[in-house]
């Protein structure tokens, strides 16, 4: 699968590094408004001065959209109309309506549209998802998830906390990953209740968000996304069943599975540590873990584009739209004080 990269910023540079290692995909073109930056990220591929030029190229089968979110819709729609598949970074777009238009364009063109929820590929997350799907921890009862970092000190540009660009604050930033992961583990929620707070940074986007989700099977989830996690970046997700629980944590990467022979019975505890991840990150940074996730994501993307079955972990366009819908449902609930009901996905 021959990719063109649109956007050569921080995440675009990591994507380019991953593509250089991929056995299923390659980088053949790059576009960025800053030509020097684009050429430094991908010196051996063709630079295109415009998106139109890239989309017209026969050497590009798919595009990686690694721009700020307010540009995602325009670029994804243009890619679909040019017959190109697209992988869009998270969040999919700033609003649910924009997501719907992106999906409509891809459906009309018959192209693949996915969203870069790469944390589905983290080893510890695989443990949690597999424990739930296999019934290893019994019937799922509830899920708890948290993601936090230190807020504005973590951001490299003001657009990263701009309402018009991101569509929200903590929940659309680091929180969008755990919104997706919770849904990935529990299934699609139908009810959302939440609070969005603005008590730390004084911005027009939330610095703290808390949400309760519930699906038609009665499984509930609690989510918290924070920009005032003074201990530093971290996230975890826990799934509880009637015969055990599974937990993923990062950073550092670790997982725990507790299995019971019956509710309240004897338990066996399995802990998984990933020393290779810790050592690798010490010398090559957290980006090395993300690159490994990207490599698996690229394999699944290439398979899906050819109509083949991958690992089942790839986040499709509907998954990306649902995460944005859930975040905006939290904002609506926070303003009204009421529970929000989500319409079924088409």
Distinctive features:
346 residues, alpha/beta
Describe the structure.
The chain is an alpha/beta fold. The protein contains 11 helices and 15 strands. The protein has helices spanning 10-21, 35-41, 51-55, 72-81, 96-109, 123-133, 163-166, 175-186, 275-284, 287-305, 317-336; strands at residues 2-6, 26-31, 46-47, 62-65, 85-88, 113-115, 140-148, 189-197, 208-215, 220-226, 234-241, 244-250, 254-260, 267-273, 340-341. It has a 9-stranded mixed sheet. A hairpin with a 4-residue loop joins β9 (208-215) and β10 (220-226). α5 runs antiparallel to α11, α6 (123-133) runs parallel beside α8 and α8 crosses α11. The longest helix is centred in the last third of the chain and has 20 residues, at 317-336. The model has no long low-confidence stretch (mean pLDDT 96).
Question: What is the topological layout?
Answer:
Blueprint (H helix, E strand, L loop, with lengths): L1 E5 L3 H12 L4 E6 L3 H7 L4 E2 L3 H5 L6 E4 L6 H10 L3 E4 L7 H14 L3 E3 L7 H11 L6 E9 L14 H4 L8 H12 L2 E9 L10 E8 L4 E7 L7 E8 L2 E7 L3 E7 L6 E7 L1 H10 L2 H19 L11 H20 L3 E2 L5
Parallel strand pairs: 1-2, 1-4, 2-3, 4-5, 5-6, 7-10
Antiparallel strand pairs: 7-11, 8-9, 8-15, 9-10, 11-12, 12-13, 13-14
